[in-house]
Design goal:
Layout lengths: L22 E6 L4 E8 L2 E9 L11 H23 L8 E7 L3 H18 L3 E5 H7 L12 E6 L4 E8 L2 E7 L5 H11 L7 H8 L22 H17 L3 H4 L1 H27 L3 E5 L6 H14 L2 E3 L10 H13 L18
Parallel strand pairs: 1-4, 4-5, 6-9, 9-10
Antiparallel strand pairs: 1-2, 2-3, 6-7, 7-8
Helix pairs in contact: 1-2, 3-10, 4-6, 4-8, 5-8, 8-9
The chain binds 5'-O-[(R)-(carboxyoxy)(hydroxy)phosphoryl]adenosine and zinc ion (ZN).
Length: 354
């Protein structure tokens, strides 16, 4: 263990402990990834993620199985995150955990573990909003976006355009009225007969396909909100029609279908993001969440950013899908503000904004 190191990102918060080193253990267990991360002064030391393959055979996350797998994974995951960071529990200054939103049984595993640890160590507990943390994943990189920035957060459960005015000051400008972008990918994949989670498989197949081969409709939703349920229905009818002509239609045209679906989802997302940038005049533009791992979205964002003169930011792959590093980074900002949670804090499945 080194001696005290200067805090890296505290200056804008009137930090009173600028020369102290602050080490935080963060835990994420909101859905089907058990993750632990150690962060020191806003620098991620470790980010360990245990995925749950068991859900594949059911075509989606089974909440009861997810909670059980979290219970099996949490001790070894925390242990490896601490050990690889060269940190022992006595070095910790706080324990952070995802409080909401998510599957309640999954959240309870991480929440109870973090509360017990904070209580046993006599250290503060920091409760983190999962969607806020996805946005803050962009602050892990160097250079990080400057405030205010816009973030398109696209995950399995959410699709939001957020204005981030300071690390903990965010406002949702638009969001999906029905399915999330990740759901649009996963449900399309299911219709194509691909296993869960289908998003990464559509991405992989799309890389070898022609995005102009098939055309899917773009919903006309006013303002900055999104809708993906119509797209899902049109894909269903498209495949029914194709399979009526040839039962092997989907298999024979898989790459082109995936590329065309992905292209439509990406254009729906980027049209609204472009509109938000125009309306707010903001040119610092980020993406976050599991779908920000999508190659088509990443490439299209960079291309659009060049055209519009934006500074674009995309988290590293490991910080796109659910991970504890984003929880640790958000907790670091909360620590600096003294925003600690009571040990009576209870996880919440709902997505109310922090
Ligand atoms: O953020 P995340 O890990 O979990 C939630 O908070 O929901 O997002 C998971 C979602 C899933 O729908 C998954 O299919 C999608 O992100 N996803 C992708 C890719 N990687 C993950 N979708 C499209 N392309 C990808 N490469
Ligand atoms: Zn997430």
């Amino acid at each position: 263990m080194g001696g005290p190191t200067p805090a890296r990102r505290g200056s804008s918060f009137g930090l009173t402990f600028a020369t102290m080193s602050v080490t935080i253990l963060a835990i994420e267990s909101s859905c089907d990834e058990t993750s632990a991360s150690v962060c020191r002064d806003g620098r991620i030391l470790t980010n360990y993620i245990a995925s749950q393959a068991i859900h594949e055979q059911y075509g989606g996350v089974v909440p009861e199985l997810a909670s059980r797998a979290h219970m099996q994974h949490i001790v070894p995951v925390v242990d490896i995150a601490l050990r690889n960071a060269g940190v022992t529990v006595s070095d910790l200054d706080a324990v952070a955990v995802t409080q909401a939103p998510g599957l309640i049984g999954s959240l309870l595993v991480g929440g109870s573990f973090a509360k017990s640890m904070a209580l046993a160590l006599g250290k503060p507990l920091i409760a983190v909003h999962h969607m806020q943390a996805h946005v803050i994943a962009n602050m892990i990189a160097d250079p990080a976006p400057s405030f205010p920035f816009l973030c398109l957060t696209v995950s399995g459960g959410h699709t939001q355009i957020v204005i981030c005015k300071s690390p903990l000051e965010m406002e949702v400008l638009g969001e999906t009225l029905d399915d999330a972008a990740g759901e649009a990918f996963d449900k399309s994949a299911k219709l194509l007969g691909l296993p869960y989670p289908g998003g990464p498989l559509i991405d992989k197949n799309a890389a070898n396909g022609d995005p102009t081969r098939f055309s899917f409709p773009e919903p006309q939703i006013p303002g900055l909100d999104f809708s993906f349920s119509g797209l899902k229905t049109s894909i269903l009818y498209f495949l029914q029609h194709g399979r009526a002509q040839d039962p092997e239609f989907a298999a024979k045209n898989m790459n082109d279908i995936c590329a065309s679906i992905q292209d439509r989802i990406v254009t729906i997302l980027l049209h609204k993001l472009g509109r938000a940038a125009k309306e707010t005049g903001i040119k610092e533009i980020c993406i976050a969440g599991g779908v920000s791992a999508n190659r088509g979205l990443r490439d299209a964002l960079v291309a659009l950013g060049k055209k519009r003169g934006w500074n674009t930011y995309i988290p590293k792959f490991e910080y796109c899908t659910d991970n504890a590093a984003m929880i640790a980074m958000t907790a670091w900002y909360k620590y600096q503000q003294g925003a600690f949670a009571d040990l009576s804090m209870s996880p919440s499945a709902r997505a109310e904004w922090a």
